[in-house]
TrEMBL record:
It comes from Pristionchus pacificus. The gene is WBGene00304920. GO terms for biological process: mitochondrial RNA 3'-end processing. Residues 24-58, 675-728 are annotated as: Disordered. SUPFAM superfamilies: P-loop containing nucleoside triphosphate hydrolases. This is ATP-dependent RNA helicase SUV3 homolog, mitochondrial. Its main location: mitochondrion.
Length: 759
């Protein structure tokens, strides 16, 4: 250390003895405030959860913003000789550290929007900047020289520090604008067209199979113009087909398809659509085009879905934004109170019309216990494709050939399997399905059997459990009542607790593209993923709302983060329906689509077929089936994008026909599920083999249930509390009583001897 640095250090020590001296680092304002709080008074635990506003336990903007790198200033000989004389790095370091300790510096930083984390990041960057003595700008170099030689106050550095902080954190000068843009507390104001209408709201409330949607659709048919908003394209298609078959002119709009009663030049005044495809500008469009009538009736089905973590925003948007004279809501009684609260600020009242279920629905007194007790007209509901295949195989071993329905199957295959199950002349009279049966399919189910009460590591949501359970014993089927139970007896009480119908206290909401675009103008350096995180962190949401998860959007955004794209195209790609979770094939196709967009080249059918490996081959095993499902999803994504970018994706009809071809191949594969699973058709197998399968089925079911139960317990356990399994197959077999300790030791010895001989 130079003599000059020693002299400055001595002066600092003398200053610390004076009454006006600044605090030491350990007694800085930040740490001091924390230490002065009593138990429970410290900084609230935030949890650093992504996808949640900061004031509700999510990550703050301080956690997400990365300081911007600044170019180093070039030095000149004049600067080295004049302004930097007698200034060394050690002395500058002491000056800057003393500056950081001053209470006034912390106070003024806070007044200028620098939080504790931003302050420390800024200070470290500013310190590194100052220590690069040869690259200092003249004004800062002169100020440092005055502080060191002429004993000027270190607080004179503050303007330079603040300027530096704003350069590396540009958002500091735009925080007020960012908060204003991300203010989601008044979503009613997002829909000016709807606010110009004195809407009448009717709530058709009741359980599944009570006729509420039927009565709402009657008003839809009577109206001069209307829109039906369904939760699934299957349901929108069903309404379209049913009304069209009666000679009623209606168009259909889903994310992947448009169908017209006449043609696109003569649109129908009635539309059946998925809820996400609802236009909140219909009244404005009618004013601009005199051939279009203003919207008279809107029917929003399954309104309780507004509490869904991923899609709830679409129902909230429809409720607040549809510009219709009459709005008919159909859903559970549990949604009545929250709907009234949402509409209260805009002075709209709700007329409730209640319905009772047309057939009785009862919960069984005990769980099924074993698959051997499965009966005709049963439906076993699973929540993963793996469990679908597992239970299907176990049923096949019992001589039962079930129909199979799950979410990844194309609509045509689902309808074919539903028809097979409903056909009284078909020997297939048992269904294994996921929650995909909850909406949009008419099924002759007498008993619903929940194979599990856990979905994706969480307890099944109430609205989903009620929707699935309500499929049993529907009015108009061969069954006068429905029964609900569980496969495992221990799950029955859990299911009862789930369907206890707690009221809905908050609904989903999501930012619009316009909000995100405006937000991005103030953060030009932020990637789209970072932009989403920052928006969610900064946004403010009122008590009745929550931000819907953007995990799937972010997952897609990360894949194409380095591909140059306009924000609108990037945003649209990231909300496309493709699922890339643990799917390298779909992931690669999505990235190639984004690169094609970036290059400005059209995404032709030939180009797409080259990606998916056309033509497809018939299904011979489960891997082939899964691959074709992925191919269908990619084709479906192409159709979805083609409706938004028709110039870039010109071959919609060719790809649609290709999708039908893949659907047929998948349908054939599912029809031969027993062969894909390596089993045999129970009717064709010998009686001895069937009896043998039945004899060992109880033990296999017990082992399978134990394994599934362990996985569910692990998925629900807190971090650090995961249930430990045996470290080897032998240990697990011993734990189940299959092998004794002596037998395991003998087996291990024989294996070692065998390995020794091979070596």
């Amino acid at each position: 250390m130079s003599s000059q640095s020693l002299r400055y250090l001595t002066r600092l020590r003398l200053l610390k003895l004076a009454p006006s001296s600044s605090r030491s680092i350990s007694a800085s304002p930040l740490l001091g405030r924390r230490n002065q709080r009593g138990p429970g008074e410290g900084t609230p635990f935030r949890g650093n959860q992504k996808g949640v506003p900061a004031d509700r336990g999510g990550m703050t903007i301080d956690d997400l913003i990365v300081p911007k790198s600044l170019p180093e200033l070039s030095t000149s000989g004049t600067m080295d000789n004049e302004w930097l004389t007698d200034i060394d790095v050690g002395t500058v370091s002491l000056v800057v550290e003393e500056f950081m300790r001053r209470p006034m510096v912390r106070q003024q930083s806070e007044e200028n929007g620098l939080t504790d984390k931003i302050f420390m990041k800024s200070f470290l960057s500013f310190r590194a900047h100052c220590l690069n003595v040869a690259g200092l700008e003249p004004a800062l170099a002169v100020t440092l020289k005055d502080i060191i030689h002429d004993k000027h106050d270190v607080e004179r550095l503050f303007p330079y520090f603040l300027s530096h902080a704003r350069r590396i954190f540009p958002h500091l000068e735009a925080m007020d604008d960012l908060r204003m843009i991300s203010d989601l507390t008044q979503p009613h104001n997002w829909y000016p067209e709807a606010r110009t209408v004195q809407r009448k709201i009717f709530f058709h409330a009741g359980p599944t199979n009570s006729g509420k949607t039927y009565h709402a659709l009657q008003r839809f048919r009577e109206s001069k113009s209307g829109v039906f908003c369904g939760p699934l394209k299957l349901l929108a298609s069903e309404v379209f087909t049913r009304l069209s078959s009666d000679g009623f002119k209606v168009d259909m709009v889903t994310g992947e398809e448009r169908r017209f009663a006449v043609d696109n030049l003569h649109p129908s005044p009635h539309i059946s659509c998925t809820v996400e495809m609802l236009s909140t500008n219909m009244r404005v469009e009618a004013i601009r085009d005199s051939s279009l009538p203003s919207l008279q009736v809107a029917v929003i089905d399954e309104i309780q879905m507004l509490r869904d973590e991923q899609r709830g925003w679409a129902w909230t948007r429809a409720l607040l934004g549809v510009a219709a004279d009459e709005v008919h809501l159909c859903g559970e009684v549990a949604a009545i109170d929250i709907v009234k609260k949402l509409l209260e600020p805009i002075g709209e009242t709700v007329e409730v019309i209640t319905y009772e279920r047309k057939t009785p629905l009862t919960i069984a007194e005990r769980g099924l216990g074993t698959l051997s007790d499965v009966q005709p007209a049963d439906c076993i509901v699973c929540f993963s494709k793996r469990n679908i295949f597992s239970i299907t195989k176990r049923l096949e071993m019992l001589g039962i050939k079930p129909a199979v329905i799950y979410g990844d199957l194309p609509p045509g295959t689902k309808l074919a399997q539903a028809a097979k199950y409903n056909d009284v002349d078909d020997p297939c009279n048992v269904l294994v399905a996921t929650d995909a049966i909850g909406m949009g399919l008419n099924l002759n189910i007498r008993r619903i059997i929940f194979a599990s009460t856990v979905r994706q590591g969480k307890l099944l949501p109430t609205y989903s459990a009620l929707q699935i359970a309500g499929r049993a014993g529907r009015y108009g089927t061969a069954h006068e009542g429905g029964v609900v139970t569980t496969l495992r007896p221990s799950d029955l009480n859990v299911l009862k607790d789930i369907i206890a119908k707690p009221p809905i206290d908050s609904v989903g909401i999501a930012p619009t593209f316009d909000q995100i675009e405006t937000f991005s103008f103030h953060l030009p350096q932020a990637s789209f993923v970072r932009l989403l995180d920052i928006f969610v962190s900064v946004c403010s949401v009122s008590d009745h709302f929550f931000i819907c998860t953007v995990n799937q959007m972010k997952e897609l955004a990360q894949l194409i983060d380095r591909i140059p794209l306009p924000l609108k195209i990037r945003y649209t790609l990231c909300i496309s329906p493709i699922n890339v979770n643990n799917n390298k094939f779909a992931e690669a196709a999505f990235i190639k689509m984004a690169r094609r967009f970036s290059s400005g080249q059209s995404l032709t059918a030939d180009w797409l077929f080259d990606i998916v490996g056309w033509p497809p081959i018939p299904v011979t095993n489960l891997n082939d089936l899964v691959h074709l499902e992925n191919v269908y999803e990619i084709l479906d994504t192409y159709l979805w994008l083609s409706l938004r970018f028709p110039d870039m994706l010109p071959d919609e009809e060719i790809v649609r026909q290709a999708g039908k071809q893949v659907d047929n191949l998948i349908r054939e594969g599912v029809e031969n599920m027993s062969k894909l699973l390596g089993g045999h058709d129970g009717k064709q197998g010998s009686i001895d083999r069937t009896n043998e399968r039945k004899a060992r089925s109880a033990e296999e079911e017990r082992e399978e249930e134990e394994r599934e139960k362990e996985e569910e317990e692990e998925s629900l356990a807190m971090p650090g509390e995961k249930k430990r399994r045996g470290n080897s197959v032998l240990e697990r077999m011993m734990a189940r009583g299959v092998l004794s300790k002596e037998e395991a030791a003998t087996l291990k010895k024989e294996i070692l001897e065998k390995e020794g001989q091979e070596i």
